[in-house]
Amino acid sequence: MRRKIFHGIVMLAVLGLVFLGWAVWMSGILHRSTPESQQVARSVPSAAAVATRKAWAEPQFASVIARGEYLARVGDCVACHTMRGGKPYAGGLATPTPFGLLYSPNITPDKQYGIGNWTEDEFWRAMHDGIAPGNKLLYPVFPFTYFTKVSRPDVDAIFAYLRSLPPAAQPNHPNEMPFPYNQRSSLVFWRALFFRAGEFKPNPGKSPEWNRGAYLVEGLGHCGMCHSSFNALGATDKNAQLAGGLIPIQRWYAPALNSGAEVGLGNWTDEELTQFLKTGVSVRGATYGPMSDVVFHSLQHLSDADLQAIATYLRAQPVLVSPGDVQKIEVSPQLAVELAQQGRQIYINHCAECHQLDGRGVGEQYPPLAGNPSIAMQPGTNAIRMVLLGGFQPGTKGNPRPYSMPPFAQLLNDHDVAAVVTYIRQAWGNNAPAVSPAVVTRFRHVPE
To answer: Of 25, 5, 1, 168, which is closest to residue 100 (Cα–Cα)?
Structure first.
């Protein structure tokens, strides 16, 4: 994976240098172009913007704000645009990427630092085209490649909600990116390769519920940002959407969501999946890592109808294979046997009290390890990280007193962690490869 990123960086650097002049020229064309999706005139608002402004003057605009708040929850906007201990939506959250450190902007209605001077059309252009006022090309860490599918009325409702928030006079933190990635003009080349603007088009051959799920997953939910693999240039593979992938830098593995693959959603009932999305726990397992944040900030607030629609869409997806490069180190048969034997005693000493000797856990409090597909996934990444860092379920309305797993990084060395993970991946009918201590070493100091 590191080699791929290195080659990708070198490739992008060369392409950035070669096409920098071309990109600047293209930026000039972009600036001069006249279609609404590319150049918005403040003096001539779109019909949708006029309709929205008319609604602002009417009593029912309160319902528009409420709908915008709900949609912002669907998009999990607050999670990225709020730094720890900061004011909601005031930005400043650092997002590490293979290309540098990016900070989320202030999207409160503050006129100096936020979007207080933006028009509806400018906000639509940012969401739909990934272009901020002043023809500022947005980095794709902002998921405009997914948000482009969101309808204009929904985008306007989100804007109305954001404009209703108290302004926060918090300055935006500059990104920390080396050359050539700090040259926004070079994004014209990236966009030409990987971005096509366009709203979601319902599939007439599918049910309304399926189409609603597709709209949420492919659009505001931007699930593919984590559950798909990235190429060397930082774009998600469109041919393996929802087929699983390793989240860059954070190094959590987001499992495949297509039916029958990895977590096996095709075998879940609708009730099990909707409960899992809404509460973060089910008899089949519990959320952990970045997914716990998604459940806490976003999914628990969705309506039952929308959660059912998401479940319907996900369970109907065809199985795709991710081309993602997950680091693996082969373990010799002899070492695998030794690790499993040693891991059994470690499990008895530290894990069996909660997960039981037979690995079946206790209800929703302590998830089962026997037959748990997330334990037996080909990459042992998440099981390793869970043992090292612990597992923390989100506190939700449906799970107000979540149970958590303590970290064992301070108690177990890399060999011990590899042993216990190997044991749980091969006990009680689980059938997954052994984990090398060398892989544990790689993940011990990865940021949470």
So the answer is: 5
Distance CA 257, CA 317 (A): 8
Buried residues in 194-230 as b, exposed as e (16+ CB within 10 A)? ebebeebeeeeeeeebbbbbbbbbbbbbbbbbbbbbb
Cβ atoms < 10 Å from Cβ of 305: 11
CA-based torsion, 272, 274, 275, 281: positive or negative: positive
Rounded to whole angstroms, how far apart are CA atoms 230 and 240? 10
- Taking the alpha carbons of 9, 11, 14, 15 in that order, is the dihedral positive or negative? negative
Residues of the chain whose pLDDT is less than 70? 1-60, 260-262, 264, 321-329, 447-448
CA distances from 44 to 17, 47, 296, 420, 448 (A): 38, 9, 40, 65, 47
Token duo for residue 300: 């628990």
**Alpha carbon distance 223, 366 (integer Å):** 26
Q: Using CA atoms, how far apart are residues 275 and 272, in angstroms rounded to an integer? A: 5
- DSSP, collapsed to helix, strand or coil, labels residue 391 as strand
pLDDT at residue 448 in the model: 58
Give every CB contact of residue 160 below 8 A, 6+ residues apart in sequence.
Answer: 52, 56, 61, 64, 65, 68
Classified as helix, coil or strand, 47 is: helix
How far, in Å, CA of 422 to CA of 343, rounded? 7
As a whole number of angstroms, the distance between CA 398 and CA 402 comes to 10
Q: Cα-Cα-Cα-Cα dihedral of 279, 281, 286, 287, to 10°?
A: 0
Residue 20: per-residue pLDDT: 42
* Cβ atoms 240, 232 nearer than 8 A: no
Whole-angstrom distance, CA of residue 340 vs CA of residue 146 = 43
CB 248 within 8 A of CB 230: yes
What CA–CA distance (Å, rounded) separates 91 from 237? 28
Which whole-number Å values give the CA distances from 210 to 15, 298, 320, in the listed order? 40, 20, 19
pLDDT value, residue 363: 74
CATH code linked to domain 331-442 = 1.10.760.10
CATH topology of domain 208-324: Cytochrome Bc1 Complex; Chain D, domain 2 (1.10.760)
Interior CA angle at 216 toward 313 and 381, to 5°? 75
Q: What is the pLDDT of residue 60?
A: 65
